[in-house]
Design goal:
With 426 residues, the protein is an alpha/beta fold. The protein is built from 13 helices and 18 strands. Strand 2 (20-29) and strand 3 form a beta hairpin. Helix 6 (152-161) crosses helix 10 (252-259) and helix 7 packs antiparallel against helix 8.
Length: 426
Amino acid sequence: MKKTFTLLFFISLVFNLSAQQSYSVSFVHVGKTVHGTFTTPAGLCKFPTIIINPGSGANNRDGTLPLTDANSACLFPSLYTDTLKIYKELAQALVDSGYAVLRYVKLEYTYPTSLGTITFHKLWLPVESGIKYVKTRSDVDTNRIILLGHSEGSALIPFIAKGRTDVKALISLAGARTPFDSLYAWQLNHLVALLRPCGATKNDSISAANQANQVLNYFNLIRNNTWNTGTPTLFGVPASAWYNYVQATDPVATNYNLDALPTLFVGMGLDIQVPPSELIRFKNEVTITNDFWSMPGLIHYMTPNNNPHVSKALTDTIIYWLRKENFAMQCSQFVGISNKGSRDEMIDCYPNPFNDVITVRVRGARALGTQITVRNVIGERIFYSEETDLNDFYIKKIDLTDSASGIYFLEVLVNGERSVKKIVKH
């Protein structure tokens, strides 16, 4: 029986956060130049490579999102006035762990008024040209190309991967099984309901319902193939492009099954754009994987609702899964991350699971000292200790009596090398 996991295992990693190389790159897609950033760990290697397929809208390469409007003030009060950069931060975390990452500027952002004739292929499939581009690079392991789709991008990556032999894995973040029009109609009505405490009126509800019905009726024409050259555009996109879009994305679960690739699905527990129930829909329909993970405390943009940065719990979940599926970097010349297990062998924590107190024992802690941090599943620090002038063996008892039962993550930094372990409190 498939299970939806609500928590995660951290993988023990050794980080060198400054060891990255970024390149401004470009490639051509349907006659238009796509600008992007290709980032790798430092060192000489052919890296497993992840291409980020972004969500809907005119996104730049960083996924920049200023939360400065009135709706954000109501929906995300603890993030109001913050500016998120979700794809940049996601890429940085993945690169820190041994992966090369391509993120790009969407064409509707680069060419808001000069995109030319809009087709499904031009508007929604730049990743196809991105795959072609990364395969020309000497620092890419072409046997380990992974597509990561966020939000709407999740509906497109299994279609892009169909029939290809160069895509080896898929990652869906905050993706929806529900077709675009039905989800959009739900979002319109749901948003008004959420905004009522902040002044949304009955007229707002009526307007949202009318717009939702217009979108649903438009897509009925598209799916029934009763549109023609006189059918107006929707959101500036012609009916012909929408027809190709629904043909590609309506069978999203089927597409994942047909690809039969290693696939990870991650839902966000506080998502108000793509509800957590969408992860359950995927779980019920996708049969080629058992990896369905729900991240509690995260909103649609991969951050906690009170912290503007992409969750470390999320990125470590992705990294854990990639390594489990044998997509770890395999180059000994890489200087950004160590694959040695010796540091983990020098750190013990017991008992685990524990009741109130857990003991941490560190061997070889003498030189530069030891930092110990305990974080909860949304990355909040609940304990910190820093010690210097240590003996070769260092023992620290950590009292978490006042913390709730559940899973926590113990980070130990010894002489500049970091290890992370999962601990469980009864």
